[in-house]
Design goal:
Shape: elongated
Radius of gyration: 29 Å
Distance between the termini: 87 Å
Largest sheet: none
Structural class: mainly alpha
Helix content: 55-70%
Order of helices and strands: HHHHHHHHHHHHHHH
Number of helices: 15
Length: about 400
């Protein structure tokens, strides 16, 4: 059964045009071709990336963040309340109003105190600016290095300037050493991001990021196996160009360097639109959609490869809407955070003291109202704890 599936998976007609077979991609006549077995090194390289990232974030990015004035947020600790802890762990991190009333009665706390407990407990799970800074530093260093490496690998190639040359003599295009390392390092980096996805800072576009990483890996793996490597290197270079500016703008934002951050973000928005909404669809997708048909008839791999590129284009359009919304707020001076951040008003209050929260919400009567709630909650708990004794006394009086 496994042998049948293996043969079906590697069937020539799925991966290659009708006039080609896998024997055409075997090393001969001084030409070396990419092989699927080369991709096995991606997994160990990904673990190397994780180790290097740990060293970098701890010994380079963290001191740099401290020097830039980025401080780790200190969240207030919550009281040890078994009822609220159980609900938080098993039910919900943000209880509904009806549940708040029930938890208030069970825990002998006011509704406001229960809300404050859950707000602070969520704050403990929420990453601080220092963690965001170190993660952005790592991505910035990689994207900068990969962009420089990509330019060095492609600047003297004919297909860098004329995309029609991507298909010249296809598939008899020998694998270059620069292409090998460019592919392996990029794929290893994206695999390492998948390995660390549950420990990294989560944002509102978490699902889109996961789809993007998975689609990128599938696209790179497929292009590697069928020798679409020339266009694959162009796709990598176009994607890394904007990411360098995005991560650098984040670093400046975390360091409170607002003017420089705004300037870099505007530049990032322009580069993103040019590379991913103009060059990517009108040059690269056009290159993979139109030019291959001049050399061979369409086949399954042709449609599959272009479908993955269109999926990436759809993600680009989604992010472009977010970027334009942020850019509008930048221009009018109303942007205070990343639109993709999982943020709400409780994030600010989770690191404030009780007095600061009260002062923040105090409009003349809210403070006394909260005190009144606390007194009422304490009175309810006292009545509940003494209810059994009062009932017994009443029964004794009735008997007398």
């Amino acid at each position: 059964m496994l042998d049948v599936l293996y043969e079906w998976f590697w069937w020539d007609r799925i991966w290659l045009p009708g006039n080609l077979t896998w024997t055409d991609l075997e090393d001969k006549e001084g030409r070396v071709y990419a092989k699927a077995s080369h991709l096995y090194v991606v997994i160990p390289y990904a673990f190397v990336f994780l180790f290097v990232r740990y060293i970098f974030e701890r010994w380079v990015a963290t001191p740099l963040a401290i020097h830039a004035g980025v401080k780790s947020r200190v969240n207030l600790k919550v009281d040890d309340n078994a009822i609220l802890k159980l609900y938080y762990a098993t039910r919900s991190r943000k209880p509904a109003q009806a549940d708040l009333d029930g938890l208030s009665k069970k825990s002998c706390l006011s509704v406001r105190q229960v809300e404050r407990w859950f707000r602070r407990r969520r704050g403990q799970d929420r990453p601080g600016v220092l963690k965001k800074f170190t993660e952005a530093s790592w991505r910035f260093v990689f994207y900068l290095a990969s962009s420089i490496g990509g330019l060095l690998a492609l600047y003297d190639k004919e297909w860098f300037y004329d995309t029609r040359a991507v298909w010249t003599a296809f598939p008899k295009q020998s694998l270059l050493e620069s292409q090998y390392w460019y592919y392996m390092l990029e794929m290893s980096f994206y695999v390492s991001l998948l390995f660390s996805v549950f420990s990294d800072v989560k944002r509102k576009d978490f699902r889109e990021q996961m789809v993007h990483h998975a689609a990128t890996l599938v696209l790179l793996s497929f292009s590697w196996c069928v020798n679409f490597i020339r266009v694959g290197t162009l796709v990598l270079l176009v994607h890394d160009a904007a990411d360098v500016l995005l991560e650098s703008a984040k670093l400046l934002n975390y360091a409170k360097m607002e003017k420089s951050c705004k300037l870099l973000f505007v530049l990032f928005a322009l580069v993103f639109i040019v590379t991913r909404l103009i060059i990517f669809p009108f040059w690269l997708i056009h290159c993979t959609w139109v030019y291959p048909l001049h050399h061979y008839p369409a086949f399954f791999g042709y449609y599959f490869f272009n479908a993955m590129l269109l999926l990436l284009l759809g993600l680009h359009l989604f992010w472009a809407l977010l970027i334009l919304a942020m850019l509008r707020k930048f221009i009018f001076g109303t942007l205070t955070r990343d639109e993709r951040s999982d943020h709400d008003e409780e994030e600010e209050e989770s690191s404030l003291s009780d007095g600061e929260v009260a002062a923040k919400n105090n409009n003349g009567c809210l403070g006394s109202l909260a005190s009144h709630e606390n007194i009422c909650a304490q009175r309810r708990c006292t009545e509940a704890s003494s209810g059994g004794g009062a009932t017994q006394r009443e029964d004794s009086l009735k008997a007398v």
